[in-house]
Every structure is written in C-alpha cells, then in structure tokens.
Design a protein that fits this description.
By secondary structure, the protein is mostly helical. Helix content is 66%, strand content 0%. It is globular.
C-alpha cells in the first residue's frame, strides 16, 4: 500500500492500527504535545513530509540527504513516539496538526 493510499485510508477510518496513537504519546511524555517535543525540528519535517505521502526518495532529494538518512529519521521517530507503522505515523501527524487530509 502506498503512503498516499495509507493517508486516504487513515482519513476514512479504514485503517486500524495495532496500538492507539495515544499510547505512543503517553510513552513519550504523557500527552501529544510532550511527545511531539521529543522530536528534533528535522524529524518533525520528515514526519510531515511522510504524512503528506511523499516517497522516501523525494524526501531525501528535497532535504538534500540520502535515502538511508531519511529511513534512519523514520526509525528514530517511530522509536521516540513508540509507533510501529507509517499509518500510525500519519495518524499522529494529523492529530498533531502537522498535516491535513
């Protein structure tokens, strides 16, 4: 499933995550704002672009970094927020106001 389709499915409520996004937020500091604050500005930027459906290669080109660097950012974001899929990252980004449907 492409990120764009994941974004559409999340917005339509068709995708259920294995763990609620709020669980990741509580793990990272108690609420969404606290969880969001654990991310660096660059991680927030990568999260926003991922949530908007940008492919990893396009994110890398836009930020002038390697694809591997973007993949590392994604892994770090997922670990910090205790999220386990791109769908969960997308839901989180929407809830935090990083992107809209």
């Amino acid at each position: 499933m492409t990120r764009r389709k994941i974004l559409q499915a999340v917005g339509a409520g068709a995708l259920a995550s294995s763990a609620p996004v709020s669980a990741g937020a509580s793990q990272a500091g108690g609420d969404g704002a606290a969880a969001f604050s654990v991310l660096t500005p660059r991680e927030r930027e990568v999260l926003q672009l991922m949530a908007e459906g940008e492919p990893t290669k396009a994110i890398a080109a836009r930020l002038a970094v390697s694809v591997k660097t973007v993949e590392t950012y994604r892994q770090q974001i997922m670990e910090k927020l205790d999220l386990h899929s791109v769908a969960e990252l997308t839901k989180y980004a929407i809830r935090e106001g990083l992107t809209e449907l």
